[in-house]
Amino acid sequence: MALRVILEPVARPGLKAEAVREVARAHPAVAAHLEQTEELIVHDAVALGHEPGPGAPFVAHVFDPRGNRAVELRGTLDGSLERPQEEVQVRPSGLRPRPEPHELAAAADILRADPGFPAGPEVVVYQPMPPLADLERPDGSRVRRPTLGIYDPAGGPRHRIVAVDLAAHEVDWHPGGVADPTDDDCEKHLPVGVGALTDRGGPDQVRVRVVRDGVELWNLIVVRPRASQPRPDGAGVELLQVRYRGRLVLRQAHMPVLNVLYADGQTNFRDWANEETVFRATGTDPVGWGWRLCTAPPQTILERPDDDRGNFQGVALHHDGQELRIVSELQAGWYRYMSDWRLGDDGTIRPRFGFAGTKDPMTCNRHRHHAYWRLDFDIDGAAADTVEQLQDGGGIVTETVPITRETSRRRRGNVKGWQVLDKHTRRGYQIWPGEHDDSADAHGVADAWFLRHHPGELHDGGRMGRPADSRAHLNKFLNDENIYGANIVVWYAGHFLHDQAAPEPHQGHIVGPDLIPVEEG
Question: Considering 127, 187, 376, 488, which has the largest number of Cβ atoms within 10 A of its Cβ?
């Protein structure tokens, strides 16, 4: 049987970073809040909504690294550039984005020039967790200070985390809120040095088509992690406008929330999922750098636990005869993550997310990761979808119980899964939890949320800080809205316990549900 996987670059509606910068500099409310507007950190702002056109809304974040302050811009694509003062709303924001590559490079130069920096060609300067160790001044303002990890294989110690004040050109060798210096090596893989990886361009997103014997099975847009939404932390490999055999099934599918809490109950991180790192992928690059159509299965750190080196950075695609795999490897400090989607020729969708790491001082301590997918189901169109809980009623046939109001659920007791169906055709998808997905503890909050679609509910507002800050805040979207026959969004969580004292088989480090098609039309 003839099978083709076709890739074509496509544009995404929105404002480029330079346009956002122009709007910010032209708006007096931005200048009134920030210390300066000449050296701003901004990113592209993607248009919101199901079918974004010229008048679509957008949300953008603008950060002043010198004053360590941020604002949020809200406007529409059609009026923001011509009339920013009238069309764009500006509000203060608590966002403190992680350091940009140029900030890390400058911090590394300052660190290497410090008399306390250890000598030796094998010393590696890497990005640790947390990415910032800001210092509070007496007046309550805060100095932005990127953190850097020093790996010295000679020991004394092997790992040390410092903070760098870029403005003062000073290194704090004993910052608060970071891991203590130690000779412990919690993982096998050598950390990637600051500046070792470069982004060489290539399309942000492509249309992917899977055609077998002239029949189009899949048609969707794939967004690479570096451009995934929402900003600034991304959501791994993002899927848009997913159609199976010509029918729309998912408008958007991504993973906007990712966090971890250690067994001490205090050490916690809110991770990002848009920093691509290298893995092994063999094949051709039909649309440019960062997109590889593979002739053999790609291998991330999860498939090659003894070797994290690679020859590719971006999104790799491989069809094994039964399903298309769309995969990228990510880094967040010393964590390594696998963002993976598997689309079966039979219509099955298997989201997968894997957990690993490089040499560091912490991950050998017991901790639990939580990953939250956002699945914007549009079964046969945006409206008229329903949700039913699949549960064990004690008989042979699984019971179905309608869910008609916004709510959250845990995978406990007789709960087996859920299904999202079109009210009229009864076509849709069942959501069956994966073998290693576990169930939420207090920090994980819940295992699934069923919500009415709202364009602005892409991110929960969580951030790096206390455990209460980094945990999932999806309950704030629960407004008791009616979801029967509505446009429905499902958030699905997988939870992974990493315990060196009781290790699971390596593939147990991967979580994710199976989405099984229901054809009752």
Answer: 488
